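Single Protein Entry

Contents — chain, fold
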Amino acid sequence: FDGDADRVFLVDDQAQPLSGSITTAILAKGILERHPGETVVHNLICSKVVPEVVREMGGTPVRTRVGHSFIKQVMAETGAIFGGEHSAHYYFRDNFRADSGLIASMVVLEQLSRADEPLSELRRPFDRYVDSGEINTRVDDPAAVIERVAGAYRGAQQDRLDGLTVDLGDWWFNLRPSNTEPLLRLNLEAGDAAGCEAHTAEVLALVRGE
């Protein structure tokens, strides 16, 4: 837990950490088992595994901007039962849409108890992709760099919900500016480690103007 326990980070029995996205997917599965057909909110840097699991469980995934206020607002608007962020904040409708690491940990422990297997096994169906982690790059003009990157991927599916998100099918990335510093934050996901590494280098070269 972090200092005020509104976040929780999981480490499995093999000493391997779980990303916030994998934890969000595990939580969504557990909640939708008890409450089928509900809406689950996730921010746009979460892994694709999150909306995939929500749909597999018969729920409705809703994608939001990054940040507490956006998650809570969309949960209120949609009546979502649960919301998750890649940063390990997990929000619950029955907790006044506030985030709670304690509630999240109880839901995961319930999943472990019912599955009767270690976390290293429980996580396997959710380990579908490889992500870059958040990579920060200092730039002089974040808006101009975003437009340059967008132009380089003009033929791909793009949206501007929060910065620039580009989806190329077997890999995708989000590039968004910091609110407080001249930084661009890159999050990228691909189907395997080699693809993730290669595509991350490709996008960073565009960001840096190399």
Remarks:
- The first helix runs from residue 20 to 34.
- Helices lie at 20-34, 49-56, 68-78, 101-115, 119-122, 142-152, 193-208.
- The mean pLDDT is 96.
